[in-house]
Amino acid sequence: MSQSKFTEFLANLGYSEEDISQNLERDTFSYLKPIATEQFYANDICIKYIFIPTANLTTTVFEKHTDLWNENRENVFVVVSEQKTYLLNAKVKPNISNPLHKSIAIENFSYEINSDVFAPEELKRLKETIGKDSVDSAYFFDFVIEKTKQQKTSEVDKDLLLNLIQLRNDLLKIQNAQETIHLLILRCLFIKYLEDRGIYEKDYLVNILKTGSAQRLINAFEQIKRINGDIFKYDEFASDEIHKD
């Protein structure tokens, strides 16, 4: 689907030309809706509509969902492809083997994107569920809350903590050096934070780790220290303390 088709889709949902021109960036349209704190939502809510070509659907849905889940700001997002539209729960952990699993997809909608107009009944259903008027009237949020009552969510903070505990225990089995392991985990987390802030490119840390070079990892820590001398000021370790196993 071309950019013009995505724009047409958004217009059919009730968004004005001004809404679209101000809030459409490449493949993502973001609509900010102020709403009072209530169960699933709080304060200003940003609803993201993301176009993903069918050919890349599963891979890209997983990547987009992972980004939103890690950011931990959005509760839901809408994926638009050539054949279907999906309303997804961003609070459910992404599933790499089945990114559109029923535990993630709150609802889906069929439509003929290649035709000149949407089927009237399907367009009506789209607008009533994920359209601008639905979002503005809060029906959208009521619909999502009702649909997600039975869904098991996995908060990213809890999941991160459990993963860190497991990582610590796995590393201790390899080398009984608790202080070094804690220091290594904290520094790697800080590098990932810098990636998320756009200071380093995506997968900067992963690409270093893939080399298996302890010295490259040490060099990355040293580079951060040159940017801010207070970071890692009192904690030092040598490359021979990091082993590839």
Q: In which order are the strands of the major sheet placed?
A: 1-2-3-4-5-6
Order of helices and strands: HHEEEHEEEHHHHHHH
Secondary structure: helix percent:
40-55%
**Total of domains:** 2
The biggest beta sheet is recorded as: 6 strands, mixed
Radius of gyration, whole Å: 22 Å
- Shape, please? elongated
Report low-confidence residues grouped into runs of 5 or more. Answer: 36-43
Report the mean per-residue pLDDT as an integer: 77
Structural class: alpha+beta
**N-C termini distance:** 46 Å
Strand content: 5-15%
**Total strand segments:** 6
| Tally of alpha and pi helices | 10
Describe the protein.
With 245 residues, the protein is an alpha+beta fold. It folds into two domains: 145 residues; 86 residues, no CATH class. It is 48% helix and 14% strand. It contains ten helices and six strands. A hairpin with a 2-residue loop joins strand 1 and strand 2.
What is the secondary structure topology, with strand pairs?
Elements: H1 3-12, H2 17-23, E1 24-25, E2 28-34, E3 44-51, H3 57-71, E4 76-80, E5 84-89, E6 105-110, H4 120-130, H5 132-137, H6 139-147, H7 156-174, H8 178-196, H9 204-211, H10 214-227
Parallel strand pairs: 3-4
Antiparallel strand pairs: 1-2, 2-3, 4-5, 5-6
Give me a quick take on this structure.
With 245 residues, the chain is of the alpha+beta class.
Supply the key terms.
6-stranded mixed β-sheet, 2 domains, 245 residues, alpha+beta, 10 helices
